[in-house]
Task: structure prediction
Amino acid sequence: MSKDNKKLIWYLGIIFIAILLTYKLPHNSNSIIQYVIPPIRVGNNSVIYLSGIIPLVLLIIGISGLFKLERFRSTSKLLIFITIILLVIPAMNWVLDFSRTNYHWIKDDGLMAVDIEKSNINLNSTDEEMIININLELRDYGRKQNNFKIRVYLPEGLSAYTNKEYYDLEACYHTHGGRNVSNIKEEIIIKLSNGHNEIQPIESQWFWEDTVYELYNSDEKIKITQHGL
Result:
């Protein structure tokens, strides 16, 4: 193997490590690097993600190294950069997704193959009720249909005002494997416990706290943690 080819593999490997570090862990909204360097809370409404520095530095090293390769001497640096952003990095993410899919297919996993791709919670309150709007995007990395229900473990900042640790969504949900995405939109209406008003849950800063979703059926159950800010 030529020296130039070795450097090509080396710099692509550095970029791949950067992508791997930012890849979400199974059933957890944190990436690998966020466990090594947790986010830092600043004040009441801000957070600093120092964990992004290491992947960014690795990306800069990898891309800069590719610029210097002999084979790309006459190629536009802008074209190389665009190719990396639009083709190389998405391809690396696809490899990670494909590897995870194969893992679940080999194990013939059911609910263990289902994960939350994105989640969002919005909160509104009235004098007696708290209305929680939940939007979930589920991805099934398995190869068979899954039927399940969802239990939502509320952040402590909300459960303290409702006397409810969790809430069971009424519907039964389905996923179909093959990395297909299912979108779920639900509204939870909870009576506020005695002595609490509609302002307190909103001011509790619950969005800093974790929300846990439990997917379950008669055969198995899994918990998926979505971390706060």
